[in-house]
Amino acid sequence: MNKVFLFTLFIVLITIFTTGCWNYREIEKLGLVSGMAIDKGSSGKGYEMTAEVIDISASTREPRFNSIRMQSYGESIFECVRNMINISAKPPYWSHATTMIISKDVAKEGIIPILDWIVRDAEPRLTLYLLISKTPTAKEILSLQSLSTEIRSFEIENMVTSNKRLSQAPNILASELTNDISNKGISAIIPTVDMVYNEGKQTMALSGGAILNKDKLAGFIGLEDVKYYLFVRNKIEGGLLTIDITNSTTLDNVTLEIFKNKTKVTPIVSNGKLSMHIKIKTEAAIGESDTPINILREPNIQHIKHTAEEFLKNNILKLINSMQKDFGLDIFGFGSIVKKKDPKLWKEIDDNWGEIFKDLDVEIDVNVHIRGSGHLSKIIKMH
């Protein structure tokens, strides 16, 4: 009986002292930050932080979610965070933040201080999405008209995650970006956002990728080039390929919808020289065609297949050559692949990888399988 009593008491005590959270705070007393923008300080020194804070306005029927913006200044990111307390009755709570927009000027000087705060502090998520703004300041993005929700940061997060269907924006979390910056064998790319007009109103849109040299902004690539970058990185999850199909009489467009893709990159050493072999296998269907022929008949389908393979191969090679000649930055992670598959070789070349990459030979094999064209095999005609 005593044993049963002691066991019961033990369970009760465990329940009492292990429930709850060590840093529990009542949510209505906090300012829930959905995202933030980082700009240079007005004097050219330090930082200006703009936080988007969720404003929950109660009504008789249901709560309405809006957002307000607060700004603070500091010599460091952490100082900006702490100074935000001085201007808000509700202390900012950063664990719900999903996106951070960084200005071009800040990115050119380096984003290590920003990543250091994210990784070191207990509140920010390591799953934050970081983006570079092409507008003069990052805070402008948070002030632009939102099309789908009043919470700008949540809309940007949805734009990044939903872009998998287009494969025109890199999808990289703060934790992954930290690893890439720390790795000699790869130069990171993060998504960019810019101002656009929609029905005469200013709003925001994803605009491609920002290339980093270590942690500093080195340049930009557009939406289409991001797609070819993702092909090499084996990160294609969808998207479209619009190609020109030439026959005896016309030049027409065929748009392929990508359903599956598998890319394998293999380092090859021959006669003491390193090269990379890229093998791409893509499964697609014909989504749209302007071609006035039966596109599924032989040899038409083979002609489309061959054209698509050459189109994809040439555009990937063009991007690789641009990275080698214009930037000298390995955004494809070829060095990381060598490090993983041949550690001994990597130890010999890692200090000179930047120069080796510039002259690296790359061979690409592309195999596009076209599995159908929906309900139609010919273009719709008007009589």
UniProtKB/TrEMBL annotation:
UniProt topology in membrane: Lipid-anchor
Keyword Amino-acid biosynthesis tagged: no
Domain Spore germination protein N-terminal: 23-194
Gene3D superfamilies in the record: Nutrient germinant receptor protein C, domain 3 (3.30.300.210)
Record's keyword terms, sorted: Germination, Lipoprotein, Membrane, Palmitate, Signal
Spore germination GerAC-like C-terminal domain span: 207-374
Location of the protein in the cell: Membrane
PANTHER family, per the entry: SPORE GERMINATION PROTEIN B3
Family, as annotated: Belongs to the GerABKC lipoprotein family.
NCBIfam families in alphabetical order: spore_ger_x_C
The protein, known as: Ger(X)C family spore germination protein
